[in-house]
Write a sequence for this structure.
């Protein structure tokens, strides 16, 4: 008789967005005349930039002609895209990452959840708390996390690293040394960034202990300030201890098109074995490549016109973030993030729990955000708003909250 992977029964996560959805649906059913503004889920709203649309059209036409038709893409991605990534995202920033260290994929979510497959079952993982839930859930599915503890609201084989205002929402070294360390900067959900010297300390720590850092830089393009690393490979020695994930989702509005990549340096090793061939084998076995037309669209992001248009889009979202940040601060809220990231992380007023504040905002001003406690116990008493809405909705939402 077939049986299931029982680890799936231990997953806690999807509860967050389904509970939000249910609450909003119930509210709207009871109050059909109210216009609810959603600044909860982290999806983009601006259309794809014209230069990228042109590249898509041209690639679609190529697929319709015998001489230019393409079938399966190369397993690890087309050279034109891997070269553009290597030159623009890495070499231009002084990072020695070659095209063949880049694995093109259909997004960072798949990569940062699948990467754990190439590591042993007994690896101990460390994650920030609060955290993007995918890192924990993918390890739960693989049975690497131990039992769930209702009291600490965490898995007993996972090392949770609290990120609080006291440590600027960047984790301190844990008391036990982890094997795999997930770091995400600019951070979802807190909007925090990590300074270069602090990230260098993490790299030094990982090298000293033989740990691997899994660095999620999906929001890299939102960095506006100097001194904030765009890639972990800006740190000395990172090629010996780090894998980096990137995404075109928030950079260029590809949440629906799907494109991302992972960097695994050729010489990166764990337990004396090189990781590059393992990930190449996994990619080649379980994945048949991001579509040609989407990879051409990705390439267009690195050409002058595409680059300028994408920059404008990011500036649009960052202006939303600035509006939310300043508006809430002036209204007396304690606010974080929003400067180098599309997320604003605010402390709930009057010590309300995250869910109490969610209900309060929904009912009083019809604004939806994400309760911080849904990202981990240290997210309790915080709340996440995103800058991905339209300008009109963003302004309206902030004005409503200010009137409270
Ligand atoms: N990593 C982080 C931290 C995210 O917040 C997200 C999306 O919200 C992703 C990865 C997923 O990116 P992609 O759309 O490329 O799968």
């Amino acid at each position: 008789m077939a049986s299931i992977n029982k680890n799936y029964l231990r997953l806690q996560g999807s509860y967050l967005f389904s509970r939000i959805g249910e609450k909003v649906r119930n509210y709207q059913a009871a109050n059909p005349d109210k216009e609810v503004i959603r600044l909860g889920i982290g999806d983009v709203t601006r259309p794809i930039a014209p230069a990228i649309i042109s590249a898509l059209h041209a690639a679609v036409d190529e697929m319709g002609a015998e001489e230019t038709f393409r079938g399966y893409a190369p397993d690890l991605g087309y050279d034109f895209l891997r070269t553009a990534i290597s030159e623009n995202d890495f070499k231009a920033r002084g990072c020695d990452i070659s095209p063949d260290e880049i694995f093109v994929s259909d997004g960072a979510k798949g990569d940062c959840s699948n990467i754990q497959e190439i590591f042993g079952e007994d690896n101990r993982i460390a994650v920030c708390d609060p955290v993007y839930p995918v890192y924990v859930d993918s390890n739960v599915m693989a049975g690497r996390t131990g039992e769930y503890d209702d009291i600490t609201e965490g898995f007993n084989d996972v090392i949770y690293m609290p990120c609080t205002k006291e440590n600027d929402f960047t984790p301190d070294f844990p008391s036990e040394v982890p094997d795999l360390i997930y770091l995400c900067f600019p951070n979802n959900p807190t909007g925090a960034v990590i300074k270069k010297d602090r990230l260098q300390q993490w790299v030094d720590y990982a090298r000293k202990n033989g740990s691997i850092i899994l660095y999620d830089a999906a929001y890299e393009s939102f960095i506006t300030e100097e001194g904030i690393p765009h890639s972990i490979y800006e740190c000395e020695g990172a090629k010996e201890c780090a894998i980096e994930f990137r995404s075109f989702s928030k950079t260029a509005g590809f949440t629906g098109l799907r494109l991302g990549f992972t960097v695994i340096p050729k010489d990166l090793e764990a337990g004396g074995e090189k990781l590059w061939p393992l990930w190449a084998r996994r990619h080649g076995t379980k994945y048949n490549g991001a579509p040609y037309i989407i990879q051409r669209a990705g390439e267009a992001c690195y050409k002058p016109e595409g680059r300028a248009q994408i920059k404008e889009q990011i500036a649009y979202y960052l202006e939303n973030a600035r509006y939310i940040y300043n508006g809430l601060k002036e209204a007396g809220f304690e606010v974080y993030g929003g400067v180098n990231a599309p997320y604003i992380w605010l402390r709930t007023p009057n010590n309300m729990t995250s869910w109490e504040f969610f209900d309060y905002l929904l009912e009083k001003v019809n604004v939806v955000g994400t309760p911080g406690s849904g990202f981990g116990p240290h997210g309790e008493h915080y709340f996440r708003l995103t800058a991905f809405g339209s300008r009109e909705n963003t302004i309206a939402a902030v004005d409503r909250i200010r009137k409270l």
Remarks:
- Residues 42, 107-109, 112, 132, 184, 188, 216, 218, 247, 249, 255, 260 surround pyridoxal-5'-phosphate (CB under 6 Å).
- The radius of gyration is 21 Å.
- The chain has a mean pLDDT of 96.
